């Protein structure tokens, strides 16, 4: 809530966190590009016919896991931004509703009135 007590979302803080997640996803993508998806060298370069398939299996599995992690980081950043926007909209709606209700409230004379009429 703007200027009040209670629950609130600091947009600058959540945007900073979302940006950090985006940055981590970008760094992961850079690392992911450095590991080939499949071997482009001769099997002898990796220790022979037995080692080359193991490296290919490792690289393929790593690529798949890195893709999952990259996508998850992006999704969490997007959800964090959406949640921040939703909280902001809810705060705005609540404040507007309270202001509207306060403006529409009848002014009582105070004599013999009760809160319920």
TrEMBL record:
InterPro entries: ESAT-6-like_sf, EspC. Residues 1-53 are annotated as: Disordered. Residues 29-42 have a biased composition (Polar residues). GO terms for biological process: protein secretion. This is WXG100 family type VII secretion target.
């Amino acid at each position: 809530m703007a200027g009040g007590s209670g629950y609130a979302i600091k947009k600058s803080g959540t945007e900073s966190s979302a940006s950090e997640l985006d940055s981590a996803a970008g760094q992961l993508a850079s690392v992911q590009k450095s590991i080939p998806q499949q071997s482009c060298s001769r099997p002898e370069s990796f220790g022979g016919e037995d080692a080359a398939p193991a490296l290919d299996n490792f690289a393929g599995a790593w690529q798949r896991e890195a893709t999952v992690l990259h996508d998850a980081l992006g999704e969490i950043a997007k959800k964090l931004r959406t949640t921040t926007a939703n909280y902001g909209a809810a705060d705005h709606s609540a404040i507007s509703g309270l202001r509207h209700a306060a403006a529409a409230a009848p002014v009582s004379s105070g004599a013999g009135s009760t809160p319920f009429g």
